[in-house]
Design brief:
about 260 residues, 7 helices, two-stranded antiparallel sheet, alpha+beta
Length: about 260
């Protein structure tokens, strides 16, 4: 099990459903839930306390991003484009892994073992049970308490423009983000079975999380959104690129 606090470093946008569109309002909101909060920031499950709407990070968003980063870093997406052409782009599955050889095939099978594959997409003889369980990330009680006290906000509005290169006219849109400094509880469960003893599942999961810290979560990552950090990996004089390279080498040596 990996437990940590996930801290938002730059505004985070993971889209929710927009039931209504108001003129001059938010075009793209973040995913939220409603809870009842006690003054100390804990949740009251009896339906009393202050009712608030707060953002959260779906486990599916975390799992999908970490898997995608690992598939890219292992060279599997590049190989998928070469072998499948226009049909490339789906998560790595057993059908694709069976087309590979050597280290690439071992890495593909490692990804499938760690994250699983959808029914009917691969090997029907050997069921792949997902090893990594990503929990939804909810606000820490400390961040919720600060919000209740009026010291921080849980959302901010960011305006973005698309510029027409010919007419030089702007097309503004407004995105909702979780502001920098807000913290969430983070938890991943790693299920290990007897057949997994020689597989570097824990190291691969750690690599994926460090790749996530070095990339971005949610929408608009190339425009400054979605930088996060996990408490458990923070230390003085940290060199995340070196950590990633070391883990990559250790994983390859274990396969």
């Amino acid at each position: 099990m990996i437990k940590s606090k996930l801290r938002v470093i730059t505004g985070l946008h993971i889209g929710g459903s927009d039931d209504t569109m108001k003129i001059g309002g938010i075009d793209s909101s973040v995913v939220k839930r409603e809870i009842y909060a006690n003054p100390d920031g804990t949740i009251n499950y009896n339906g009393t306390g202050k009712k608030i709407t707060e953002p959260y990070i779906p486990g599916s968003s975390l799992k999908g991003k970490v898997r995608s980063l690992l598939e890219h870093s292992f060279g599997l997406i590049r190989e998928q484009k070469q072998l499948l052409g226009d049909k490339a782009g789906k998560p790595v599955d057993s059908n694709f892994a069976n087309k590979l050889n050597g280290m690439l095939q071992k890495k593909a099978n490692l990804i499938i073992t760690l994250f699983g594959e959808s029914a009917g997409s691969g090997d029907t003889k050997n069921t792949k049970i997902t090893r990594a369980i990503f929990r939804d990330c909810f606000l820490t009680k400390e961040s919720r308490k600060l919000y209740l006290e009026g010291k921080i906000a849980l959302s901010e509005e960011k305006a973005e423009n698309t510029i027409n290169r010919v007419s030089v006219t702007a097309n503004p849109r407004f995105m909702e983000r979780v502001p920098a400094g807000v913290e969430f509880y983070f938890e991943v469960i790693l299920r290990e079975f007897d057949e997994d003893k020689n597989l570097p599942l824990a190291k691969t999961l750690e690599l994926g999380l460090k790749l996530l810290e070095n990339d971005a979560l949610g929408g608009g990552g190339s425009r400054g959104n979605g930088k996060i950090e996990l408490d458990i990996y923070q230390k003085e004089d940290r060199n995340i690129s070196e950590e990633i390279s070391t883990l990559m080498k250790e994983i390859e040596e274990s396969l």
